[in-house]
Design brief:
The structure is a single chain. 45% of the residues lie in helices and 22% in strands. With 542 residues, it is α+β, with helices and mostly antiparallel strands. α5 runs parallel beside α9, α11 packs across α12 and α12 packs antiparallel against α14. The mean pLDDT is 80. The longest helix has 62 residues. The chain has 14 helices and 17 strands. The strands form four sheets. The protein has a five-stranded antiparallel sheet with strand order 2-1-5-4-3. Strands 7-6-10-9-8 form a five-stranded antiparallel sheet, with helices on both faces. It has four domains: 111 residues, PAS domain (Beta-Lactamase, 2-Layer Sandwich); 174 residues, 2-Layer Sandwich (Beta-Lactamase); 70 residues, Helix Hairpins (Orthogonal Bundle); 146 residues, Histidine kinase-like ATPase, C-terminal domain (Heat Shock Protein 90).
Length: 542
C-alpha cells in the first residue's frame, strides 16, 4: 500500500503531460478551436481563433458566442445548442460568421459535446475552418462552366442562324451576361451625312427607349476608338478617362442616360472594315477585367463572320425576289404574243390540207405549247415563292386523272409505251385536279426524257388506309445518290455526260410544293444506269 501515493503521482504526471500536449496541439492548430458553456459563453480560445476573428484570448473569453454571429443567423446557435444538449455532434455545418472588423467570412463548423468526469454534458467544443478559398475556387469553376456553356451557345447560334437581328440580339444578351454588365448594346457603324451618329441595333439589360429618347450617340472621342477600329477600350471609370466629356452639347452623358461608370467597348471588325461595336456598362467602378476583353474579342470575331454571312443571305434573298418579280412580269408579257402566234397557227392548221405544210404547223404548235408550259411553270414558281398559288381541293378520281394524263403524254411522246397498273375500284382523293395533272405529266415526261435507251414507262396506283400512292418508274439512266437529296430543289439539275436534257430544273420543285400543299409526300428511289421511281401520296377522300 506504500506504493499507492507514488502511483497516483505518476498518473497525475501522465494526465498533466497529456493535457499539456492537447493544449499545444489546440494552440498550434490552423483551425480556430473554441469551447463554450451550454449557455454560450466562451471558455477557451486558441491562436488560430485570434487570427481568424481578430479578437485576442483576453477579449473573447467570458464573452457570449453571439459576438461572432451575424444577427440574422442567431437562430443557428439555438439549433446547435439543442443538438449538443442531446449528445449529438454537428459536422461540417457551413455558415457565415463576423470578425472584429465586421468582415463576414464563410466557415465550416464541427461542434462536439464536452462532458465532465461524471459524463454530463457541460459545454461544447467548436472547430471553425475558413472555407473562403474553397468557395472561391468552386465559384470560379462554376463561372468557368457557365462561360463555356455561353460560348458554346454563341457558336451554335452563329452557325445555325442567318437572321441578322436574331444573331446580334443573342450575341448581345450572351456577352452582357458573360461580362456581368448591367446593360450591353450593339451599335452599327453607320455615320450619317454629318458624320455624327451611329445606329443602335440591339440592347440587353435595359429598355430600348432608354437610348432612343436620347437620340443616337455622337461621334465623340470615346466612341471614335471603337468605330475607327483602333482597338478595345476598357475603363474602370469612364468619367475619368481623358477622352471623356469634351464634345458638345452635353460634354459627357446626357441627362437621363443610363449610369455608366465601368465601360467596355469592343469593335466588331470584318475584312471590309468596322461593322460596329459591342458596348457594356455598369454603374459600379472596375467591374470589367482583362479576361472579359479576351472573351468578348473572340466572340466579336465570330459575330463579324455571322453578320457578313447574314448580310449576304439578305442580299441573295433580295436578288431572288427581284428575279422572281422579273420572271413574273416577263412571263405575263410573253403570254400575249404566244397566244397570238398559237391562234394564227391554229387558223393555218384548219385551212391547210397539204401533208408537209400541215406537219410543219403541227410541229410549230407543239413547240408553242411547250413554250407555254414553260412560262406557266416559271409563273408557278413565282406564285409559290409569294404564297399565291391558288388551290381548289375537292374529291376527285385519281384513276380518271391518271388515264387522262397518260393519253396526253403519249400523244406528244410516241417513242414510249406507258404501262399502267390500276386498282379495279375507283379511288377518290382530295385534290386540285389541275395541279395533280401537272405533277403526273411532269413525272411521266421526265421518265421518258431520262430513259432514251428504253421504250417503256410504268405507272402504278395503290392504296393504304389513308392514302393513294402513285408511282412512275422508268428504265433510264438513273440518278446518282449524291444528287437525290437535292432533286426537289428549285433550279437544280443533275449534270451528266451520258444524256443531255433541256429544262430549267423547276418541274420537281413545283411538284413537291403541290404535293406538300395537298398534305401528301413525294419521294424517289433510283439506281444509276438502272432507272428511277418517283412516288407521291394523296389523302383519300373521307
Amino acid at each position: 500500500m506504500a506504493d499507492a501515493p507514488f502511483l497516483q503521482d505518476i498518473d497525475q504526471n501522465e494526465a498533466e503531460k497529456k493535457q499539456a500536449m492537447l493544449a499545444a496541439i489546440i494552440d498550434s492548430s490552423e483551425d480556430a478551436i473554441i469551447s463554450k458553456t451550454l449557455e454560450g459563453y466562451i471558455t477557451s480560445w486558441n491562436q488560430a481563433a485570434t487570427r481568424l476573428f481578430g479578437y485576442t484570448e483576453e477579449e473573447a473569453i467570458g464573452k457570449h458566442i453571439s459576438l461572432l454571429i451575424p444577427k440574422e443567423r442567431l437562430k443557428e446557435e439555438d439549433m446547435i445548442i439543442d443538438r449538443i444538449r442531446n449528445g449529438h455532434r454537428v459536422q461540417h455545418f457551413q455558415t457565415i460568421r463576423v470578425t472584429k472588423s465586421g468582415t463576414y467570412i464563410p466557415l465550416s463548423l464541427t461542434i462536439s459535446p464536452i462532458k465532465n468526469s461524471q459524463g454530463a454534458i457541460i459545454g461544447a467544443s467548436k472547430i471553425a475552418r475558413d472555407i473562403s478559398e474553397q468557395l472561391r475556387i468552386h465559384q470560379e469553376a462554376q463561372k468557368l462552366l457557365q462561360n463555356t456553356e455561353l460560348l458554346l451557345s454563341v457558336g451554335r447560334i452563329i452557325s445555325e442562324k442567318l437572321d441578322l437581328h436574331s444573331i446580334l440580339q443573342n450575341v448581345t444578351d450572351i456577352t452582357t451576361q458573360l461580362t456581368g454588365a448591367e446593360f450591353g448594346a450593339f451599335f452599327y457603324n453607320m455615320i450619317n451625312d454629318q458624320g455624327e451618329a451611329y445606329m443602335l441595333y440591339t440592347l440587353s439589360g435595359a429598355p430600348k427607349e432608354a437610348f432612343e429618347k436620347l437620340g443616337m450617340p455622337r461621334n465623340t472621342a470615346v466612341f471614335a476608338r471603337t468605330f475607327s477600329g483602333e482597338g478595345i477600350l476598357r475603363s474602370d471609370d469612364i468619367r475619368k478617362d481623358p477622352r471623356y466629356g469634351h464634345s458638345a452639347p452635353h460634354y459627357g452623358m446626357p441627362e437621363g442616360h443610363l449610369p455608366v461608370v465601368s465601360y467596355l467597348a469592343v469593335p466588331v471588325t470584318s475584312p471590309s472594315g468596322v461593322i460596329g461595336g459591342l458596348f457594356f456598362g455598369h454603374s459600379q467602378p472596375a467591374m470589367f477585367k482583362e479576361e472579359h476583353e479576351r472573351l468578348i474579342s473572340g466572340i466579336a470575331s465570330q459575330a463579324a463572320v455571322a453578320i457578313e454571312n447574314a448580310k449576304l443571305y439578305e442580299e441573295v434573298k433580295s436578288l431572288s425576289t427581284l428575279k422572281d418579280d422579273f420572271i413574273g412580269v416577263a412571263g405575263h408579257e410573253l403570254r400575249t404574243p404566244i397566244t397570238t402566234i398559237k391562234g394564227y397557227l391554229q387558223l393555218l392548221e384548219g385551212q391547210s390540207t397539204e401533208g408537209l405544210t400541215r406537219d410543219f404547223i403541227e410541229k410549230a404548235l407543239r413547240q408553242v405549247n411547250k413554250l407555254n408550259r414553260l412560262i406557266t411553270d416559271l409563273l408557278d414558281v413565282t406564285k409559290i415563292q409569294a404564297g399565291k398559288l391558288d388551290y381548289t381541293i375537292t374529291p376527285c378520281s385519281i384513276i380518271d386523272l391518271v388515264k387522262e394524263c397518260i393519253e396526253t403524254v403519249w400523244q406528244i411522246h410516241t417513242s414510249h409505251i406507258i404501262e399502267s397498273r390500276l386498282p379495279d375500284k375507283d379511288v377518290i382523293v382530295m385534290a386540285d385536279a389541275s395541279k395533280i395533272e401537272q405533277v403526273l405529266i411532269n413525272l411521266l415526261t421526265n421518265a421518258i426524257k431520262y430513259s432514251p435507251g428504253a421504250n417503256k414507262v410504268f405507272l402504278t396506283v395503290t392504296t393504304n388506309s389513308n392514302y393513294a400512292i402513285v408511282s412512275v418508274r422508268d428504265l433510264g439512266i438513273g440518278i446518282p445518290q449524291e444528287h437525290i437529296q437535292h432533286i426537289f430543289h428549285r433550279y437544280y439539275r443533275v449534270k451528266t455526260t451520258q444524256h443531255v436534257v433541256g429544262g430549267l430544273g423547276i418541274g420537281m420543285y413545283i411538284s413537291k410544293e403541290i404535293i406538300n400543299r395537298h398534305n401528301g409526300e413525294i419521294w424517289l428511289e433510283s439506281v444509276e444506269n438502272q432507272g428511277s421511281t418517283f412516288f407521291f401520296s394523296l389523302p383519300l377522300a373521307p
